[in-house]
Amino acid sequence: MPTETETPAARKPGKRDVRLWIAGTSVSLFGDAALWIALGVWMKDLTGSNGMAGLAFAAYVVPRLGAPFLGLVVDRFRRRPLIALLNFVLAGWVCLAFLVHDEQQAWLLYLVLFGIGLGVGMHNAAGSALLTNLVHADDLGRTNALLRTVQEAGMLAAPAIGSLLYVSFGPRLVAGVEVATFLICAFSVLAVRVDEPAPKPPEGTLPQELLAGMRHLARTPRLRAVSIAMGGGLLGFGFIETVIYAIADQGLHRSAAFVGVLTVAKGIGSVLGGLAGMRVLKRVGPGREGLLTVCGLSMMALGCAIVVLPGIVAALAGVFVMGLGTPGAVVGLYTSVQRNSPAQLQGRVASVASMLATAPQVLSVATGAALIATVDYRILLVVMVALIGTSACYLALRVRGFDHADEARPATAGVAEPAAAAD
């Protein structure tokens, strides 16, 4: 039996429960990827606009701007039942897509994506917190990398399957698949056995509670640095959601459905990137997850540079390299949040970190949609290289400073020292 002072995160992980969690969330993400590709192509076919298609992704990520509220909700309930309920609700929400028949109802596709983005944002924050109850702190990085690898493997198949189902049977069947994946995720999560402590009661006013996660992130140098770097990197990378349609259309003279092929190439890179991330984390050790984000952002910048070159080979190689870097960047961010945040703030800090990373992405998606009609997509790719590369360099310098501070600290210090003070 665990002692009174032992936290659930310190117990030996239950492999069955971790596998159920990974399987359920991966299946759900598979459905999200298939639906997102299908709805983006559907919007392009309904409106004939690359910009409107690119804004489909903006509708999906905009809800994460409500991160303080979403995180507070996550921290006020037990995470496992909350995640299951969210997936049941989302299964019903997707059915709104069945009402779309022509361009006049196209706005419903944005509404569907907005609702899914809202639910998935809460799912991600709650899932990040729940994982700290399932896995020992030192194993969080490798477990996150494994989870990301399995998810990317599913996403590798999702665009091709989503595009095939869209072309062969229409978008409504893709929406039906998404409904099924949400239900599978809900039942998988309900089957997870976890000793989850009751949420702590509020300790301050509502504004104080809403801003608690942001204050913790701002006062913790490691979290602040990796969040700033990811925000800057995604400020550049967000252009890809619109640019990828121009690459297929203007650069390769293919239909919008060819975006699915490019996404498959990116997915192959992401699977390999997730596997590589596990090896990198094993080599650098716990507490240095920021290095993985540096490597990931660097690869994403390199991929954007390759896509500037003409031809289908360069396009496929470029998106492959982008995919190679994406898992590491994301895993480094969320593992840093999990390792450097107290249990009662896990949901809020994860939501704020997600908001600080994705808010710039929303801005760049909207900007890309506005510029794509008048600015050559290759110019936008050069801007992406500059923004992502600068963010990687910034974080590399910060991580080096943290490492030097760790080396200078006495060996007996820091065992019970809070993460913010340690830096």
UniProtKB/TrEMBL annotation:
The keyword Transmembrane helix applies. It comes from the Bacteria. It is found in: Cell membrane. Its main location: membrane. The keyword Transmembrane applies. It holds the Pfam family MFS_1. This is MFS transporter. It comes from Streptomyces lutosisoli. The lineage of its organism: Bacteria, Bacillati, Actinomycetota, Actinomycetes, Kitasatosporales.
